[in-house]
Amino acid sequence: MNGGMEILAKVDAANTQTEEITNHCREAPVVIVGAGPVGLLLALLLARKNVHSIVIEKGDGVDTSPRGLLHYPPVLEVFKTAGIYDTVVEHGFCMAGNSWRKPLADDGNGNNLLGERIAKLQTCELRTNGTYPEGQFCVGFVQSKLVALLLEEVNRTKLAQVLFDTTLVDIDQDAAGVNVTIESAGKPEVLRTQYLAGCDGGKSTVRKLLGIQFSGFSWPERLIATDVRRVVSSVDPNPAYFVVDPVHWGVVVPLEKITPGEPGLWRYAMAVADPSITDAAAEDDDYVEQLLLKYIDGPRPSTHTTVRKRVYRIHQLLASTMHRGRVVLAGDAAHLNNPIAGLGLCTGLLDVDILAQALHAILNEQYHDPQDLLAEYSAVRRYVFQTFVNPQSAANKLRLHENEPDRAAEEDWYFRALRRADPTEMMKIHGPLFVNWKTDLQRLMKTQPTPGHEVLLTSIEETADTVSSGAAVRSVGILAQ
Ligand SMILES: Cc1cc2nc3c(=O)[nH]c(=O)nc-3n(C[C@H](O)[C@H](O)[C@H](O)COP(=O)(O)OP(=O)(O)OC[C@H]3O[C@@H](n4cnc5c(N)ncnc54)[C@H](O)[C@@H]3O)c2cc1C
Prior knowledge:
481 residues; alpha+beta; D-Amino Acid Oxidase, Chain A, domain 2; 6-stranded mixed sheet; 37% helix; 25% strand; globular; binds flavin-adenine dinucleotide; FAD/NAD-bd_sf
């Protein structure tokens, strides 16, 4: 049994724990809505700081559908704090770059060759000891394994309780706390807590109950994420690549360490550009298999097996605030972006890194104005999304289908920069996101902010100086622009 399967097997046992709320958790100062990666990481980070929480999850277990997988260096730092870094690296796979390719090419003998490489990003070289330098590589660790691991760790702390089959239905807050109405098996119950974190995904009930705007736009195209088992005869050291094509654009990335000659699991995320195709028709076996043949290289008939598939809509949306009173939002509940280059999940995980620190500081009375601190949390994280994540993820997607594959290398500014491969230029391009992505709350708190956002602005100015001087930017981008 491989590591990931062991983790998933353990989760079945973890999910069967009693749904009775234990007395010490009933007193929990934080209720978290949603046992996705963001909610569970928040529960774990709080537990590491000795803060109790209850996690409310409407599903009957953790989600195993094909979703996010890539973890950038700032998130790996948070995994260290959470105590899961070693497991993620051991059971995941490290990548130090990726490529952009043209669509498949026919060799004239019935073989479909991997599309010609347009550009390549290489963030560092493998060292002689078989590892990459710290802070310069990403780890692929699929979301379903991440939530399983987080749940296992959360349960182990005994400081948080995850209630499955339990839905948040209402919130009522006053100056001293929040009444949280939950429903399980048709039975309503009210929990009283000090703070509520809405980590309940893009359709967030918490956000809707608070009447918070979710603004931006939805893309006309959809994506179909397929997990495919196949055998390859050789594998690039950085096998992930994007396909540049006006219609059949997409992403191909391994979901585990790939050994040539042995079956390995890959993610093919492919564009569904035709709006007249219904979601059901896009998930139809024949449609998916025809589409896959436009992406899977190698001989025909192809011997791959499609393990799972899911079509989904893609958006660029941001909540007008991530804080109202004693309720905060994090992850997809607060912001959504298209998944090209995998910036969404990481941004949510980085939200709760700072949120856990903020809540801990508030509950331990280490800060003079809790409401101000939460307002600052909202301001900083919205700034990061609006200024870096939103435009960069949109550009990442557009680059795949706005360019002519045969001309992209010469016409697209980013591909031109990649081909120059000048480290200083790469730093200037990737540095701003990587410096700002993870928020340092302690630094904001030390200066005891006064009304307005003077502290935030100082922090941003300092950051800009850091980037322009090229100093202290260890984490260069992988797939990041
Ligand atoms: C098909 C798909 C593919 C994706 N691919 C990528 C990718 O390649 N890279 C990437 O970075 N990101 C990807 N994403 C996005 C990534 O999966 C999300 O950013 C991530 O799941 C966000 O985590 P979250 O915990 O905020 O929300 P979610 O994972 O959505 O978790 C929210 C949880 O809240 C629960 N919930 C909702 N309402 C209630 C309620 N009222 N009461 C109780 N519980 C509730 C839900 O059941 C769910 O378990 C993808 C998303 C989808 C849908």
